């Protein structure tokens, strides 16, 4: 066990493999089931795509009011319950987003995602077999070796090590003091009209938040042992007795722990933040609610939609953008179906 890599035990077994097997039959059954499932998913994606296209067209046809930045600033009230189109209107966050655990404030953010990563071991099984003889009945005598290697690194989720072949030597602590979660805020258009960030169909790409050098450690962060940070992550090292862990590793699993640390230690945690900002201006199609002071999703067919584009865009431009996203989704469903069939086969 050295740094980010470790080896485990090797197991040997000898067994008889009968030549009279019905494996081909069961392979055919599994393949047929896979074809049915994948075909069903592809058909469903085609149905959903056509349904979405019709909903987009229906939403554009329902537009009963068109306005812009000037109209909203002048105080024109949006018609209650009507589908409205607004052109190139200024948009900003209604309020900052705060993460109290780390003492951070995010201005003009549509959403902020706290991303928690865990330093964990992953077990990889290696299996090799070869024929070493035959029985009197003509069946194969097989010799098989199963060995394990272990790889340490940052993971997006915790990995239970209880069922590892060497669970003590490659123990994964399951601490999770600051789990991942997403924070959102409302947006405010010119004239005080509000809408939810979650309703917007188009937003700028998210980016990694740069942690200020002078950020003040909060009591919560201190309690959870987030004692260091760089420009991108807060770090909480896991504290354990290295000598005791090394002794147990050897006595129980027979693994020698050299004590050489890798890029991180099992049980360490790091936290970063991904920020999705509001665009400066948007063009959108939505339903006016609450006396024209709020925009929400409008009924379109059997679904509800709020469509927008970043910056200036006509209703047809917005519809084309939304349709392109639908087609892109349908394309990847098709690709996924073909790849799944190839793997299954």
Report on the structure:
Helix content is 26%, strand content 37%. With 345 residues, the chain is an alpha+beta fold. The mean pLDDT is 88.
* SS elements, strand count: 19
Largest sheet: 8 strands, antiparallel
Poorly predicted runs are none
Backbone shape? flat
Q: Mean of the pLDDT scores?
A: 88
Tell me the β content.
35-45%
| Helical content band | 25-40%
Please state the CA-atom Rg, rounded to the nearest Å. Answer: 29 Å
How many angstroms does the end-to-end distance come to?
38 Å
How many helices? The count is 5
The string of secondary-structure elements, in order, is EHEHEEEEEEEEEHEEHEEEEEEH
Q: Please identify the structural class as seen in this structure.
A: alpha+beta
Structure summarized in a few sentences:
The chain is an alpha+beta fold. It is built from 5 helices and 19 strands. Helices cover 26% and strands 37% of the residues.
Mind sketching the topology for me?
Blueprint: E1 5-17, H1 23-61, E2 63-68, H2 69-73, E3 83-93, E4 97-99, E5 104-106, E6 109-134, E7 140-155, E8 181-184, E9 186-189, E10 194-196, E11 207-208, H3 219-223, E12 228-229, E13 234-236, H4 242-253, E14 269-277, E15 281-289, E16 294-296, E17 298-300, E18 303-305, E19 307-310, H5 315-344
Parallel strand pairs: 2-3
Antiparallel strand pairs: 1-7, 3-9, 3-15, 4-5, 6-7, 6-8, 6-14, 9-10, 11-14, 12-13, 13-14, 15-16, 15-19, 17-18
Helix pairs in contact: 1-5
